[in-house]
């Protein structure tokens, strides 16, 4: 079982201020190529601001991103996991609460960053690389192998021909 600390890449514990405009926050998300950020008011963690918030609470409602503040459209239900929690717990929380981002804190409950569904998927795929390579090798061995037969006193090898029936062993 992997723990969240092993799943996360090096984080810059980034957040946006609750009083920032939506446009300022979106600019930061775009420049950092991330989909969500923690929201702080002073030193207090008060929410999460994500692409979904922008779409559903700003664009869909026709609000001006230069006038709307992050605090007015952020998600206030903050789901937290600890660095030493198992990654499957994080997945369960995401599925149960219908969210794609979780706040990660350390053993002192200090903010460390945001864990995304993508982070968890990449970790799962990385864990399965050996299996993926083995399945890939088996597929190509079975489907692209040359066919051979014995005729009188010699072995005839027929090369694989794409689309030709009967070319698998």
Key descriptive features of the protein:
CBS-domain, 169 residues, three-stranded mixed beta sheet, 38% helix, 8 strands, elongated, alpha/beta, 2 domains
Written account of the structure:
The protein is elongated. The strands form 3 sheets. Strands 1-2-3 form a 3-stranded mixed beta sheet. Strands 4-5-6 form a 3-stranded mixed beta sheet. The two termini are 38 Å apart. 20% of the residues are buried. Helices cover 38% and strands 24% of the residues. It folds into 2 domains: 4-126, CBS-domain (Roll), CATH 3.10.580; 131-158, no CATH class. With 169 residues, the chain is an alpha/beta fold. The protein contains 7 helices and 8 strands, in the order H-E-H-E-E-H-H-E-H-E-E-H-H-E-E.
- Beta fraction: 15-25%
Helix/strand-derived class? alpha/beta
Shape: elongated
Q: Can you identify the CATH superfamily of the largest domain?
A: CBS-domain
Q: Mean pLDDT score, rounded?
A: 86
Examine the secondary-structure arrangement and name the CATH architecture of the largest domain: Roll
Question: What is the CATH C level class of the largest domain, in words?
Answer: Alpha Beta
**Largest sheet, order of strands side by side?**
1-2-3
Major beta-sheet overview: 3 strands, mixed
Kindly report how far apart the N and C termini lie. 38 Å
- How many beta-strand elements? 8
Number of domains: 2
Unreliable stretches (pLDDT < 50, length at least 5) are: none
Radius of gyration: 25 Å
Instruction: Sketch the topology as an H/E string, one letter per element.
Output: HEHEEHHEHEEHHEE
- What is the CATH topology assignment of the largest domain? CBS-domain
């Amino acid at each position: 079982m992997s723990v969240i600390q092993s799943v996360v890449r090096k984080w810059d514990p980034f957040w946006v201020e609750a009083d920032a405009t939506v446009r300022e926050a979106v600019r930061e998300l775009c420049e950092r190529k991330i989909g969500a950020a923690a929201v702080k008011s002073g030193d207090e963690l008060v929410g999460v601001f994500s692409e979904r918030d922008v779409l559903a609470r700003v664009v869909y409602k026709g609000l001006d991103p230069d006038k709307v503040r992050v605090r007015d459209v952020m998600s206030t239900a903050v789901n937290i996991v600890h660095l030493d929690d198992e990654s499957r717990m994080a997945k369960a929380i995401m599925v149960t609460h219908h969210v794609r981002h979780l706040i990660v804190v350390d053993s002192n409950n200090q903010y460390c960053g945001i864990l995304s569904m993508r982070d968890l998927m990449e970790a799962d795929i990385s864990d399965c690389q050996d299996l993926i390579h083995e399945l890939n090798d088996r597929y190509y061995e079975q489907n692209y192998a040359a066919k051979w037969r014995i005729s009188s006193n010699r072995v005839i090898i027929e090369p694989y021909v794409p689309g030709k029936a009967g070319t698998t062993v």
